[in-house]
Amino acid sequence: MTNFKVGVIGAGPSGLAMLRAFEAEQKKGNSIPEIKCFEKQDNWGGMWNYTWRTGVGKYGEPLHASMYKYLWSNGPKECLEFADYTFLDHFKKPISSYPPREVLFDYIEGRMTKSKARDFIQFNTVARWVDYLEDKQQFRVVFDDVKNNITFEEYFDYLVVGTGHFSTPNMPYFKGIENFPGAVIHAHDFRGADQFINQDILLIGSSYSAEDIAVQCYKHGAKSSTISYRSNPIGVNWPNGIEERPLVSHFEGNTAYFVDGTFKEYDAVIVCTGYQHKFPFLPDNLRLKTKNCLYPDNLFKGVVFNPNPRLIFLGMQDQYYTFNMFDTQAWFARDYMLGRIQLPSFTDRTADIKVWMDGEAALTSAFDHVDFQTNYIKDLISFTDYPPFDLDKVSDMFKEWLKTKETDILNYRDKVYKSVMTGTLAAEHHTEWMDEMDDSLEKYLEEVPINEVV
Q1: Is 0.90 topped by the overall pTM?
Q2: Which fold would CATH assign to domain 5-167+275-398?
Q3: Cα dist. 340→1, 50, 196, 336, 384 in Å?
Q4: Class of domain 177-271
Q5: Which pLDDT tens digit goes with each residue over 140-172?
């Protein structure tokens, strides 16, 4: 049965995966339901849709994107490659394993421009509120078209939330930080390392964003970067100019004091303490409530909201895999909505969720986390016709990436990997990453920069 209506909130990689999944079904000659997608930004791409703005956007809405200039992929592109649209399909030649943001956005967009996905999307439109109408078994969603200042409502039989969870900063307080005389920002508002040249930078948090921003600032001329960790240091082989210290206890003026009794003066503070899962448009009984983890509670197969199975969440996990995981989730969600996957009872779904959550709780290493998410994707693929690919080889690449980063944090992006989709070995980039200061698409795709021709 396809005489139903699906609403999709968000046109980032997760929301676009949902549209792509239905399009793949349509291309096989099968009918699909009516689909409408709503995106608060003025273009698709979600987090990869870069903006120079911070705080609020053009129409006064909190900004979604946390993307910054000079961001390069911090994991091999071969680990996130779409199974149905490879990098070779898009660029027609091998490229390096760690592309910059413009290149990855171009890849995401390339897959969608070959489809009619844009016809399903209404941009500059924010979901304000959702009600579930038990009598009709439908969702009523109130939207604001912020460009035209129009409020309207839509009704859906299934609602897919693909808004991501890296846009609402988690911003802790430290005694005395209100009197710090320099810049204090969250990583969400970091737009590039240029403003921190010749400065001593303090980064609070030991996430991937702290690691990458510290390295970016080092590369672009910061005097020093200190990463302050709460529980455990990142522990890679840092160069002179980057160090790790335990958690900040308090500030006095521009001096940060750490719990081990050490202290240092800083010019700026960048808070890299992660993000909140935030869904202000969902009522309490429909809201996903979780910390950042590999298997959130109340999501059957990490996708279907257990208390109300007509509500679907995509991309809500902590992530090693990204684009291709969102795809496998979307294919599962599609086949469930089309009636091909029958859900077990509420009790059995709850038990299945507990098995996965208990499995995550028993993990002890980053390698264990990679294996866990690999097995999760294998489980999803077993239900659908998403093009199979060698997940064990992808898992091995993730582990190699983790090892290489630990020993060579400044140069790991120069390593190349082989695509499991095409068997193509990535090309070495024409310039070593530490020397490449231009991250534009045009410069990246040059065969050999003019100034290197001899």
Answers
A1: yes
A2: FAD/NAD(P)-binding domain (3.50.50)
A3: 10, 38, 54, 6, 9
A4: alpha beta
A5: 999 999 999 999 999 999 999 999 988 899 999
